[in-house]
Amino acid sequence: MLKITNNQTIELDKIKKLDYDKFYSSVVELLNKKENHCVNYFAYPIKDEFQFFIAIADDKNHDIVILSHQLNQDDKKELKSLTEKIFSLHIFEREIYENYGIKFIGHPWLKPVRYPSNRANKTNINDYPFYTIKSNELHEVGVGPIHAGIIEPGHFRFICNGENVLHLEIQLGWQHRGIEQLFLEKKNHLQRNILAENIAGDTVIGHTTAFAQTLESLANFNVSEQLHLERALALELERIAIHTGDIGALCVDAAYHLGANVFGILRTAIINFIQAWCGNRFGKSLIRLGGSNFPFTKELRNELFEVLKSYEKKFEEMARITYRLTSIQNRFELIGTITEKQARIIGTVGLSARMANVLRDVRETHPNIAFQKYPVNPVVLKTGDVMARFVAKKREIRKSISWIRDLLNNFKFKENIEKPNYSLKLKPQHFSISLCEGWRGEICHCAITDKDGALTYYKVKDPSLHNWKVLELSLRNVEISDFPINNKSYNLSYCGNDL
Among candidates 351, 398, 399, which has minimal Cα distance to 371? Predict the structure, then answer.
């Protein structure tokens, strides 16, 4: 088995193509171990074949196993489903089937995922095969795809017995934008860089960092330690900002508007600092291929110290009140619970895994240079309910603030950092993979080049792809009125899933 590390590039010829039986047994053997999980599984057509790649992360030994097999396009488009043995692969096989019509025998339900315009499975989005239960005692509740307020499209179908939810199914794919195809159509690296910023609007830093690491590795281009640290700093600021906003949003759903207002104001202080750094509150234009147009200056360092000092004092004061409120505890405890066993079976990543006693954090298990030099000790909780996700966000904010202070106190930032480089030449016939721990969880970007060094395939995986199924499952036997709180506690991405 070929093992590589995070942000590594390997020649395609070194990735051995297995027959499917060997591929199948190897994947099952690896994913039956607790320390392993799938970070990406995809197929793409090349010449007269479909080429398959799976990347399995070993969280204990800090490496990634790459396995491959191929299927002749003239052969019968059928393969034995891995989902029968490893349920976490259900979403990847569904996507492959939707895109290329390759049927996975034994898959429980090959439903559409994204509805791309060039898909092989032309199922109409209005004909989605929802799970149903025939009963005179039960009723269905449909919500979306158009929602009140500022939210992206998604349809939620509840099957209820009175107020109690027996089953929830979420249908996405309403806004497929063809992001992965655009990475191939855009030949200019700056265009691709800007495209990466728009994969998910709340994860600009996370996705753009993964993109930059992928292409820099593919070009064998080494950036300075300072640039790695500046990107990590931005990543932790993004984590603080979004978690703060999420805590405020949960206060809204629990009708605690004082907390909602204060946490909203505190989030604004963090994103306003990001705007002072690069001119955009969400970090657009900050992460650039090969360098930066906005070095972290001494003035910014001093300002960030003051911002964090003010933020931390107000955050701790408001958190001390909010987290002790009986009304908050009553609404959040034992609601939307996921067990460790369920989290592992589903393949959950990020905070949604860590709140159920599953340590999945790229900063710890597959760290880049920044997190190797300044390690993070991830927050792991056990109860797996809304309260666990609420508490985890608070504790992760504290961890991020501590990490940033450690960095600012110990690293001497220089202002003559390298400028962006959009003329990087990518190595021909290579495979590259990058993992990045965004605020929501594990982001994975993969890139493949042809004999001329041009991108022939680009694959993006947002952590939400793993975690939507967790949200569905965690609402069973919960009153439907608790859905908004449970949903907000995950804060999963529609566009990150739909790409």
Answer: 399
Q: What does the pLDDT read at residue 151?
A: 78
Task: Let me know if residue 173 belongs to a domain.
Answer: no
Angstrom distance (rounded) from CA 131 to CA 203:
32
* Burial per residue of 96-121, b for 16 or more beta-carbon CB atoms within 10 angstroms, e otherwise: bbbbbebbbeebeebbbbbbbeebeb
> How many Cβ atoms are within 10 Å of 309's Cβ, its own excluded?
12
- Which of 71, 91, 113 is at the close of a domain? 113
Summary mean pLDDT of the chain: 95
- Cβ distance 82 to 25 under 8 Å? no
What's the DSSP call for residue 288? Answer: B
Residues 252 and 375 in one domain: yes
Q: Do 493 and 362 share a structural domain? A: yes
What residues pair up with 38 in beta bridges, in sequence order? 56
d(CA 5, CA 66): 10
Give the whole-angstrom CA distance, residue 324 versus residue 312: 18
User: For the chain, what is the total number of helices (H) and then of strands (E)?
Assistant: 17, 14
101 and 192, same structural domain? no
pTM, to two decimals? 0.96
Tens digits of residue pLDDT in 39-54 = 999 999 988 899 999 9
Mean pLDDT of 61-87: 93
**Assigned domain for 231 exists:** yes
**Domain stops at, among 62, 91, 113:** 113
Question: Is 21 within the bounds of a domain?
Answer: yes
CATH number of the CATH domain containing 65: 3.30.460.80
Q: What are phi and psi of 364, to 5 degrees?
A: -95, -40
Strand-pairing partners, residue 435, are: 444
Report helix, strand or coil for 370.
helix
Burial level of 441, CB count in 10 A (0-12/13-18/19+)? buried
| Beta-sheet strands, E only, within 423-488 | 430-437, 442-449, 455-461
32 token code pair: 């039956």
Cα atoms in the 13 Å half-sphere on the side-chain side of 325: 18
DSSP state of 113: S
| Dihedral (CA of 237, 239, 241, 244) sign | negative
- Which residues, in sequence order, are CB contacts of 130 under 8 Å at separation 6+? 157, 169, 171
Only one residue has tokens 């709180």, namely: 485
Is residue 140, in this structure, part of any structural domain at all?
no
Domain count, the chain: 2
Same domain, 193 and 318: yes
Task: Note if the bond before 145 is cis, omega within 30 degrees.
Answer: yes
Provide mean pLDDT across the span 53-64. 97
**Side-chain half-sphere exposure of 450, counting CA atoms within 13 A:** 10
- Range of the structural domain that residue 328 is part of: 179-498
| Alpha-carbon distance values, 69 to 73, 374, 401, 449 (Å) | 13, 38, 44, 18
Name beta bridge partners: 167. Answer: 159
